[in-house]
Amino acid sequence: MGPAPVGAQLPGAAGDPEMMESTLEGTVKEEKKEFSKKHGAAGSPAEGLLQPVKLSRAELYKEPTSEELNRLRETESLFHSSLLRLQVEELLKEVKLSEKKKERIDAFLRNVNQKIMRVPSTPETELTDQAWLPAGVRVPLHQVPYTVKGCFRFLPPAQVTVVGSYLLGTSIRPDINVDVALTMPKEILQDKDGLNQRYFRKRALYLAHLAHHLAQDPLFGSVRFSYTNGCHLKPLLLLRPHGKDEHLVTVRLHPCPPPDFFRPCRLLPSKNNVRSAWYQGPSPPGHGSPEPPTPHYNTWVLQDTALRSHVQFLSTVLGSASGLKDGVALLKVWLRQRELDKGLGGFSGFLVSMLVAFLVSTRKIHTTMSGYQVLRSVLQFLATTDLTVNGISLCFSSDPSLPALADFHQSFPVVFLDSSGRLNLCADVTASTYHQVQHEARLSMALLDSKADDGFQLLLMTPKPMIRAFDHVLHLFPLSRLQAACHRLKLWPELQDHGGDYVSAVLGPLTTLLEQGLGSRLHLLAHSRPPVSEWDISQDPPKHKDAGALTLGLLLRPEGLTSVLELGPEADQPEAADFRQFWGSRSELRRFQDGAIREAVVWEASSLSQKRLIPHQVVTHLLALHADIPETCVRYMGGHLDALIQGLKEASNTKGRMVVSQGGEMVMVPNVEAILEDFAILGEGLVRAVEARSERWTV
């Protein structure tokens, strides 16, 4: 017969409705049969709901695999319960980035790279000649003193490299930051740029020129300045996408010098790179004192030189070990809930990553460990290791030219060296902050060992700000008073080292002063600096006094808290002069029952609630005496619940007692009328209960 011609109708086609209907019915029945074979009986009452998986007897009772056995054994020995393991796994799913968002971020980063490389260059000018800058952008740096040697010109970066947690896969939500290192060409820099903030001035001008051109691009919805971990000498540029992805990611641009541009021997903690004659002005003749070392300034320069080497080191250690990355993510959540990673001197996620790498290199953590095991191991290490006494190092070289750990302990309170052996990763971490981290690590380990049902909730889900963690909290405001404290304490070398940041300069001596004064009353003293907010590129950078208030938290010991006496040395001892100098006018000679004559301080407190506030007297007295900070600048929060407690006591006593005047004195006597009223109410209640019970049994 051959094929049918085009346009001819076959029997039962569109021209025969009955045939078409029967054909469709047959097709639908066949499809239903096939669907029922694959997915079970369709049309059942549970259609559309999840059905239990049907397993054969062999599959149901087969032996568990080695992976399942390891998972069960790990759950039993480490997680205490299957619930805790499920909670940890769900938390990791919540804080990690999805693959779709990673693709969008990668696309944005490629566009950022192209835009940066197209920024035009500028002619060479003196560092002090900044007339070439457009009117709509300001230099994100306090240029004090303004006069400085050197020349500057802008050239596109020699290399643009993604560094930080995003590249390692350890960044956590909700705030996703991608750090990008911009390697400045060697033609911009000069040999002596490490002196007198020349490098930092060029770094700031480099960012200002970039900000002006990138702000005009429609790709970016926001172009703003901020500080690198609160360090005012190291601004960075924040780029956010335009449109619906504005809150997706923040790209942070970090200009850095070429590798090995600065000689490491010139940036050791014992070296000086900020000349006193430049910073403080020429000294009078005859003052030939040696230049003070500038360890923090040197560290900030070294940090920029090591950006790429650090990310390469972490990439090698963490590699494809998902357990290590999960552990870093959990530790970041732990730090964030306790606000330990905020601002300058915080225990950042980068420090936690390097600490995990150190424990891996010392074989205290294995690459096959789970994220929960890594969390426990790091918390155990922090709880039992005091880096203020015995520092650690990632450098295992025996090179005699490298400085010893003891040299770093002379310049920094907390010591943790990187793999080069020259950079202290904890240079900005104060002793108070590290002791707070230690304290929280001990509490967390005790919580995990207690096998409490709400352990996960308390460990990783509950915020713990300073107001919840400490007994007394005080705020020093305004911060400009700390500048007078630097002058009173004669902290000229510290100011020179920190580039004029008087808050950072005075923080260490101030906490040491209060710790010495509070003595046995104090268990822990911690401080918190509010992070400096970002600012528009057309504005001047915020000043130190605009950062809010410096907050100090006091965790007190109940044993010696209510003592009104500070007992000093005997009058004929040489320590008596130091005691009088420390306490000032509050120190006085007293004779005790054993016949000894000693220096002593007596605080005014009669009631127990007043004795609990003796730390308030100690703090305000010492700050006014030694730091020139008056009591009006100290906002002390402690004992605010005493009035409430006293009110509850009075309310509870009013019902059964009353106050009467007898002989000019107020005396508490029983309130007989109130007691009889209570008995009457009780009797009526018993009668109603008996009547109700008798009615229940009546037939």
UniProtKB/TrEMBL annotation:
Record's keyword terms, sorted: Chromosome, Nucleus, RNA-binding
Species classification: Eukaryota, Metazoa, Chordata, Craniata, Vertebrata
Instruction: Offer one example of a GO biological process linked to this entry.
Output: tRNA export from nucleus
Task: Provide the family line.
Answer: Belongs to the NRAP family.
Kindly give the PANTHER family that the UniProt entry links to this protein: NUCLEOLAR PROTEIN 6, NUCLEOLAR RNA-ASSOCIATED PROTEIN
InterPro entries documented for this protein: NOL6/Upt22, Nrap_D1, Nrap_D2, Nrap_D3
What is the name of the protein in this document? Answer: Nucleolar protein 6
The listed locations are:
Chromosome; Nucleus, Nucleolus
> What cellular-component terms does GO give this entry?
chromosome; CURI complex; small-subunit processome; UTP-C complex
The job of this chain, per UniProt, is described as: Part of the small subunit (SSU) processome, first precursor of the small eukaryotic ribosomal subunit. During the assembly of the SSU processome in the nucleolus, many ribosome biogenesis factors, an RNA chaperone and ribosomal proteins associate with the nascent pre-rRNA and work in concert to generate RNA folding, modifications, rearrangements and cleavage as well as targeted degradation of pre-ribosomal RNA by the RNA exosome.
Top-level lineage group: Eukaryota
Pfam families cross-referenced by the UniProt entry: Nrap (PF03813), Nrap_D2 (PF17403), Nrap_D3 (PF17404)
